[in-house]
Amino acid sequence: MFSGILIKIFSIVLLIAVGIVLILGIGTLFKGGETSKKYSNKLMQLRVLLQFIAIIALVVFAYFFKD
Question: How far apart are CA 28 and CA 34, in angstroms?
Fold first, then answer.
């Protein structure tokens, strides 16, 4: 039971992190100017990396922690 709660919390934290980076990236893209040139591509790359980590973690959790 304890591990199930930790897995749920970790999964939610990963998904929230992806959402935050996505929102920051879109906001930077719409802001434009020098900020957009400097950060929007890096934020989108970070989003893709976080999505990859989240998907792998969720698949591993689903495989190993089936009910």
Answer: 10
16-58 per-position pLDDT tens digit: 999 999 999 888 888 888 878 888 888 889 999 999 999 999 9
d(CA 44, CA 41): 5
CA distance 34 to 5: 43
| Torsion, Cα of 16, 52, 55, 40 (10° steps) | 30
Helix (H) or strand (E) holding 37: helix 33-64
d(CA 38, CA 34): 6
Task: Report the distance separating Cα 43 and Cα 49, nearest Å.
Answer: 10
